[in-house]
């Protein structure tokens, strides 16, 4: 008899978990239930995965939670290295990553494992002229990946639909308990909770969870695009004022993301002009090569064609990957609270969830 699995949430975490479960288990029926899906014509800010950059930028772990999470980023990177070769239509592309810090914390200078481990071609930038031109006291370079989120999410969705015959259901849930009231869902189903902020069984969200508002700009780079300096790299800059500014080329002609903001517990779901102005002011100094020139006035400008607003689902204490038994034996595997690292942690988190799932299924078969 097949085990019924219900994945709640269809962002990058929910879809990645669903794909891995389908690949690892033959005797399962998988259903994905979500309010938002990648193929929706319009995406709300709450559907964070659609608004991501997205790229992988390693960083030194600052606490116990980050120390536990950084190996999961390397599992994702290992998976993406294979995917970039076997399935280039996923949009996963390996490029040069650059970090330039104006006021580097000591943990960067110490080069801990969480920053440098398994980062191909990692090197410190020693050229003083280059550092000066980047307004930086510290620089590092390495091989990393970028993806075009809308393409990647639909790649996962199509894989589930065509290769695995997964069922999809749209629902605006207010509790995980509601899942079991859906006629098509078995009462013995195992739930995989990938709801970002952590929807709870009896309603509400994990009290440890909170949103981090992010606003970024999608920019048309000067032509020819492939000749531009940011076509095959992603660059992140830290200023003395604490602001981080980055640019991420979205593969497959997706433009360049320039960002951004990091605003905890800010619930404003529309573009804020003051944020746009602040990002552009910083980007003018750091990424002037991304600016076009007005043919009439000769004035330099960023050709912004979209402003993105999304809510990164953060959680005090870090990501929650845990089994919870409720209501006399119903089983929930939680996988939420990844903040701004959803893509970076996605496959690593899915492998941890799958290990718990395999244990559950083994116990059920005893």
Mean residue pLDDT? 96
CATH class of the domain at 1-54 and 147-208 and 316-366: Alpha Beta
The value of Rg in angstroms is: 21 Å
Number of strands: 17
Which topology of the domain at 1-54 and 147-208 and 316-366 does CATH recognise?
Answer: Rossmann fold
CATH superfamily of the domain at 1-54 and 147-208 and 316-366: NAD(P)-binding Rossmann-like Domain
Through-space gap between termini: 14 Å
Query: Which CATH architecture of the domain at 1-54 and 147-208 and 316-366 is right?
Result: 3-Layer(aba) Sandwich
Number of helices: 8
Which outline best applies? globular
Low-confidence stretches: none
Approximate strand percentage: 25-35%
Helix coverage percent:
25-40%
Going by helix content, strand content and strand pairing, the class is alpha/beta
Query: Main beta sheet, described?
Result: 9 strands, mixed
Keywords: FAD, Flavoprotein, Oxidoreductase
Cofactor: FAD
Family: Belongs to the DAMOX/DASOX family.
InterPro entries: D-amino_acid_oxidase_CS, DAO, FAD-dep_OxRdtase
């Amino acid at each position: 008899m097949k085990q019924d699995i219900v994945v709640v949430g269809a962002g990058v975490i929910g879809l990645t978990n669903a794909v891995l479960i389908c690949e690892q288990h033959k005797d399962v029926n998988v259903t994905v239930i979500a309010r938002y899906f990648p193929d929706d014509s319009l995406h709300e800010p709450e559907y964070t995965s659609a608004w991501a950059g997205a790229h992988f930028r390693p960083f030194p772990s600052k606490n116990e939670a980050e120390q536990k999470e950084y190996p999961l980023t390397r599992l994702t990177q290992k998976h993406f290295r294979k995917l970039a070769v076997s399935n280039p239509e996923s949009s996963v592309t390996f490029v040069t990553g650059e970090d330039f810090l104006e006021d580097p914390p000591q943990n960067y200078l110490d080069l801990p494992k969480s920053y440098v481990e398994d980062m191909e071609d990692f090197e410190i930038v020693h050229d003083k002229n280059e550092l000066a031109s980047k307004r930086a006291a510290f620089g590092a370079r390495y091989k990393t990946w970028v993806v075009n989120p809308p393409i990647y999410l639909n790649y996962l969705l199509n894989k589930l639909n065509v290769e695995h015959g997964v069922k999809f259901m749209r629902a605006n849930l207010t509790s995980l308990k509601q899942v079991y009231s859906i006629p098509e869902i078995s009462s013995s189903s195992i739930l995989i909770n990938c709801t970002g902020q952590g929807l709870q069984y009896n309603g509400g969200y994990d009290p440890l969870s909170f949103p981090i508002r992010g606003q970024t700009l999608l920019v048309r780079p000067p032509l020819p695009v492939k000749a531009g300096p940011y076509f095959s790299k992603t660059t992140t800059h830290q200023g003395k004022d604490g602001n981080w500014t980055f640019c991420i080329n979205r593969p497959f002609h997706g433009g360049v993301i320039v960002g951004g903001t990091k605003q905890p517990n800010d619930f404003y779901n529309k573009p804020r002009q003051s944020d746009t102005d602040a990002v552009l002011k910083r980007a003018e100094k750091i990424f002037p090569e991304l600016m076009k020139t007005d043919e009439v006035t000769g004035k330099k400008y960023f050709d912004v064609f979209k402003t993105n607003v999304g809510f990164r689902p953060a959680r005090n204490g870090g990501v929650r990957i845990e089994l919870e038994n409720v209501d006399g034996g119903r089983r929930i595997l939680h996988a939420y609270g990844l903040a701004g690292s959803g893509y970076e942690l996605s496959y690593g988190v899915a492998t941890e969830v799958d290990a718990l799932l395999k244990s559950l299924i083994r116990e059920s078969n005893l």
